[in-house]
Amino acid sequence: MKLHTKELTVLKKVQKDYPEFADSSDGLPLEELRKNLGIYSKYAQETIMAREKDEELQIARDNVKELAGPYNDTLKALKLKLAYINIRMDEKKGEEA
After folding, report:
1. Helix/strand/coil (H, E, C) string of the chain?
2. How many Å separate Cα 79 from the centre of its chain?
3. Would the pTM of this model clear 0.70, i.e. be above it?
4. What is the pLDDT of residues 9-23, one digit of tens each?
5. Is 22 exposed, middle or buried (0-12, 13-18, 19+ CB in 10 A)?
């Protein structure tokens, strides 16, 4: 089976960042890999649920959103104005002599 670039990237990253995990997983039969897939999927779901219930994290996110709001609004307006200028410049290119 030929692996795609994305799959090769995942394999290399796990082997680099979690070598013990990669080594222990590489020798497992298919049934054990399926079992581990279920275990790690459960852990991932529990982590997501814990993150969603974390009130301090939600407060911090809300604070960041509020503090970043004026910057984001300004950048949004500037990007729109820059796009407008570029369109007008493209329209006037034919007028140059």
Report:
1. CCCCHHHHHHHHHHHHHCHHHHHHHHCCCHHHHHHHHHHHHHHHHHHHHHHHHCHHHHHHHHHHHHHHHHHHHHHHHHHHHHHHHHHHHHHHHHHCC
2. 23
3. no
4. 999 999 999 999 999
5. middle
Is-contact 33 25, C-beta < 8 A?
yes
- What is the number of other CB atoms lying within 10 angstroms of the CB of residue 25? 13
The length of the chain in residues reads 97
The predicted-structure confidence for 34-70, as pLDDT tens digits, reads as follows 999 999 999 999 999 999 999 999 999 999 999 999 9
Amino acid residing at 20: E
CA atoms of 12 and 63, how far apart (whole Å): 37
> Quick check: 97 pLDDT over 70?
no
